[in-house]
Design a protein that fits this description.
Length: about 110
């Protein structure tokens, strides 16, 4: 009869089979948040928190607090910070008006 492996080796060999995640993994939408949530069910392939892989985020009116936690303005709002300033100026694009007018008058004089 061959010698038995030490108990520590047996436990190590069984761990990858057990998984350790309880049938859930982290969805891609939580990857940026850096959270430790494990709400994506492996067999259903559906996130209990955000509804991934659905195109729209999961939200219900019976959970007002959850809607407040993830609404617009709870993150960085990289784009929206800029929009309010541009709105005040009428969403102007290109060079300033005086710079454009100055070039035309300089070309006409010479």
């Amino acid at each position: 009869m061959p010698p038995r492996n030490p108990p520590s080796l047996e436990i190590r060999s069984r761990r990858p089979l057990m998984g350790g995640m309880g049938g859930k993994i982290q969805p891609l939408r939580f990857g940026e948040m850096g959270s430790r949530r494990r709400s994506l069910h492996v067999q259903k392939h559906e996130c209990a928190s955000c509804g991934y892989p659905a195109a729209k985020m999961r939200k219900y009116n019976w959970s007002e607090k959850a809607k407040r936690r993830r609404t617009v303005g709870t993150g960085r709002t990289r784009y929206l910070k800029d929009v309010s300033r541009r709105f005040k100026n009428g969403f102007q694009t290109g060079a300033p008006k005086n710079a454009r007018v100055g070039k035309k008058t300089a070309e006409q004089e010479s």
